[in-house]
Structures are given as structure tokens and as C-alpha cells.
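New to this. Comment on this protein:
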Amino acid sequence: MRYIFKNKPDHTIQANNAQLNTENLFLQNVLDQLPQLIWMKNKQNKHYYNQALCGYLGMTPNLYDATDCKKFIHPEDFEHFSILWQQARPTQQNFEKECRIKHHEKGYRVCLIAVQHPQNLDNTEWLMTATDIHDHYLKQFELNQQVHTQSKMLDTSMDCIKLLTPDGRVSHRNRSGGLALSVSLSEKKFGRPWLHLWPDNIQNSGQQASTHVAKGKNARFDRMSVISGQTPQSGDHILPPVQNEDGSIQSTLCVSRDMSQQKIAEKNLQQFIEIDELTGLYNRRAFNKIFKKTIQNARHQSQSIGFLLINLDYFKHINDTLGHIAGDHLLQILGQRFSGCFKDEIVVARLGGDEFSIIVPHLTNEAELFEIAKTARQQLDIPICYAGQYINGGMSVGCAIYPRDAQNSSNLLRCADVALNDLKISGRGGIRMFKNAMFQSIELTTKQLSLARAIIHNDKIIPFYQPKVSLKDGTVTGFEALLRWYDAEDQIQLPSHIFSAFQDYELATRISEIMQLKVFKDMTQWRESGRKLLPISINAAPVEFLRDNYAETLLNRLAQFHIPHEMVEIEITEQSLSERGSDYVVRALGLLKQAGIHISLDDFGTGHSSLTRLRNYPVDCLKIDRHFIENIHDDPSSLAIVKAISQIGASISLEILVEGIERLEQVDALKACDCHTGQGFYFYRPMPSNDATQLLQPVMIAQS
């Protein structure tokens, strides 16, 4: 310990205080052994610095005024330190103060200064110790900064974050949590039970979550908070436990997020993805959900449900001819009309394309469902105009009833689809109630379509040719190309086994293409082999005209094979001129007629025959159906019909050809009716191209 005399005592005072100095020297030696920075003043007004303090300050005895601690305490800290000292001296109270003390090498460092007035040291007026806590202070400061930053981060979170004690009380919360709990931001402690903060409808869920957390498990629940006088809020609450090293629960973190706006957005999005953008009706997604729910309710209430599946007839042709915008306009108008013509409980949906569905809950009987279907069809009776043109459309409706026809939504939809397909096969347009017998028809159709695809894929189609002959002398005047195909055993089969394929545009068109190419190839080979060509008639199914490109396609193929147009005749049925899409048929026939191709009307007399058609349509030949020929020799009515058709044809310059001639007496009767050309087994059966070749005469070459 170094000491400094404030006043020079005389020798008398030194002698009297000899004993006291001995004690002070002993205390000095003790203080010099301590690592703390110590400064002491005795009652003789002497100040002592121990060696640790002198070394810390880098001072030597008498270098500084011992009483002027202002020289080594930072000015900003000294002011408060001085106030504390002045307050403590009269009462001799001890105090502590963190101050920055100037280290002789490291600059100012934070030290904890403790000023004491020891009562057990008689000769000591005060004792000041300084402990360097600078490193600890920096760590604590850094920690405090981190805590402060984290606290700020938590406060910036929109989530309501709370820390719960093991007994379920709120010990801490962030700013959002305080606002949510209506707690003053300055209030650091809270202590209220967490569950009591929730409305009654949430407390049960909160209790269950707390039970999970108590077992060391994460908990989560999502509930709507309903508080009287406030807007209901939807919240997502996550509660992970905070565990000690031994696994015991130290506390629970509760993070609550207001999901109200998200729920509103989800609801709006749900509505958006379940509404058909074009028509404003429910889309397929919503329909499936509503359909299943409606059947569940009907099952519980033992009620019936009506279901309608709707297709617009020839909708594709509207798109192809008037454009997709016109088609969309038709769907929009129809959607608006559907929305306004049914009771609120009836659900109308657009399933896609031109397909609609109607769900009728609480159905009374089949008659009620039929009336609703009629109402739906009537919406197309009202004219729809786009860009100055009227859009003509038809509607086919398939109907099914739960639980009579099916026990679930998928099967009921299938039943309505079966009824709809059954309707389309028979000519489209109208309403068809499902019957169990329709499944047999669907199975047959499916089988025939599959068979047709296999025949096409395996190239099993082959044309046979049935000669047309002069009834006068039996001379062959032409051929009709007839579809035949080989089965798995290479046996020749008739087209009746794949009849359904001719109702399908893609299959019918593909079969027609194969037949035409093979017929034209045969004709080319006959011509190249020096045979005289005879006209060949080719059958066309009504569905082939629906793309409105039949004539152009046929003419291109004829050009490809260099076949003279007058050597080809197209046979159509009366059905082609009566179904929807007949405009396409008439346009195609007009182009073919202008190109020199003959047109024949097959099976005349079996359909809705009209003399107007014969006058207005480009027809060259009438083919009298075989049903009128079977009993012509002993059935006066059949004979009269044949005579009438023959006379009409002659009067308007139409050729007459009679089908199905099998006996000599039929030939004689037809001659008497002034019929000149016919075909049938009496003359020739259909034959392959090799046999037909033998009926063609060689071309005579003039001799030079």
C-alpha cells in the first residue's frame, strides 16, 4: 500500500500515533495482497491506494491528488457518483455504482465501485473498492442487445405471442399480444390465466391443447372467436412446450395468428374456383361436392333426388361455322336463363363444354322431373342472336332418379349419361328417362365401337362390289361399293356388327376414308389393266357431313387418283336430309353435283319422304327400298307405291334403281312398273374386286 500525507504532522503527533501507524501498516500490507482495486481513507485524513489500484491507474505516490477521483472516473459517470457520495457521507450509508475508470493502457473500463463506511474498523473513515467488470459488462450488454432486438422482433410480429407458466398463466407477451389482451404496453407482468382470456366457445379447445402440451407434445387448434359486440375472428393457435434438460415443462409458447382475412380470401377463392367463369353457374368441382352432399341428405331423410344431364345438339358445328365467340355467347345466355327459371333449391351446373347438369332435391315423382326437363329445353326455344345471326340449337336431356335408379352420385350420373346416349343414338333432341334395359344397348354400343377401332387398326376393311344391272337384258351398268371386314378367323363380316361406329364422327370418317381409298385404288388398277370403268356408288353416313368438309375432302381424293367425277356416285339416306346439320349435307351435295358427281337417295320411301326434297335437293337417283319389293307380286299396296315412285322419278328426270331383287317374278313386276335398273341376289351377290374385274369389258383400241 502506498500512502500520501495530506498534511505534514509534527513529531509530537507521530509519537502519539505510533501505535495507530503500526495498525495502519498492517492493514496496508493486507490490502496490497488483495486483487481488488482499493482506496481507503482513515480518520487521520490519510488516503491509501493498494498496489492493484496503483497498477491499474498507472500512478506513483504523490502523482495525483489522492482526493481527486474525478481524474480517473469518466466525466459522464463522475457527476452521478459525486451525488451519491455527497448523499452517503452524512449518513455513512454504503452504496455501489458502475463507473468507467481509466486504465493506464486500455482506456476507460467499466468497474463496479463500492463505497463502504466500515464500523468494525475504528480508524477507517471509508473504504472504496473497484472491481473490473468490463468484460462481463460487454457480454451483458451484448446479451441485453440481443434480448432487446429479439423483443423488438417479437413486437413487430403481427402474431400474438405469449409465454405461459406451467400452471397456465401469461407471464410475458409481445406488443401484439398486449394489444389483443387489452393490456398496457408498459405493463411488464400480467399473470392472468390463459384460458380465461378466451370466449367460451374456444376454452374447451384451449384446454385440450394445454393437456397435450403438459405431456410434452406440440398442440394446435383453429377456431372462430366470437365475442359479443365484436367482429368474429378466425385464429390459428400453436402451442409448443419449452422443456428443461430433464424433460420437465418450463413454460409454454403460445403463438396465435389472426386468420380472418385469410379465411375471407380462402372463401372468395373457393367461390372463384367453384364457379364457371363463362356462365356464372357452378362448375364440375362444385357440382361433385354438392351432388354427393345432396344424396347424403336425401339418404338420411329418405327422400328422392332428380338428376338431369344436358347436352347441346351439334354445338361443335356452331363453333365451327359461327366461331367460338358465338358458341360462348350461346352458353352465357343459356346459363343466365337456367339461373332464372328454376327454384332456388334446384342446382344448375356447367360440367364443361356444352354439358350441363341439374340436381332436383326433394323430388316428388318422375312427372315433376320431366316437367323440369321440359322447362330446361324451352330455354332454347327463345331466339338467341349473335352478330345479327340467330343461333339455332337443340338440346338432349338424360334423366335419372335417386334412389330408384342408383344409390350414389357416380352411378346416378352414369344412369343419366346412359339415358342421354340412348337418346342420341335414336336421333338426338328430346328427353329420355333412364331404364335398366338401356345398359344392354350401351354395352352393345361400346362393344361395337371397340370392334370398329380394332378393325381400323388392323386394316381389316375391304370393299365388296354389288353390280347394278339393266332389268331389260341383265347388262351390268355399275357397282355399289359395300363395306366388308375380316374377323379374327378371316371370315367376311357385315357392317351391321359395327353399326354404332357410323354414329361416331371420328370412326365413321375414318372408315369412309379407308373405303374410298381402297375403291379408288381398285378403279385405278382396273383402268391401268385396260378395263372399261363403270360408275361406282359409295355410301355416306349422315355424321360424315358434320365437319362441313365432306365435299372438299372427296374431291381432293379423286384428284389424287385421277378418277373422273362422272364415275362416282354418292349414296345418302333420307335421314341425312332431315337431321340437324342437314345444311352441311345440302352444301356438300351441291358442290359435288357441280363437279359432276351423281347423288343417289337411298332407302327412299322408308323415311319422312318429301317431294319438296326431290325438287330442291341435288338428287339424281332414287333407290326404292327392298321392303317394297319383297311382296310386290302379291301385295297391291307395295306395287302401287313402286309404280308411283317410278312415275314421279320419270316426271322429274330422276333415275330409279330397285334394291333387293331376288326372284324372277319380282323382275317381271318391276318391268311392268317401268323400272329399268336394279340390284339383288337374283343377279349378283356382293363380290371382291377380283371377281368384279371379270364383269368389266376390256377397252377396245382402234386399229390404225
Observations:
- Residues 505-528 form the longest helix (24 residues).
- The chain is about 40% helix and 25% strand.
- The two ends are 155 Å apart (CA to CA).
- The longest strand covers residues 476-486.
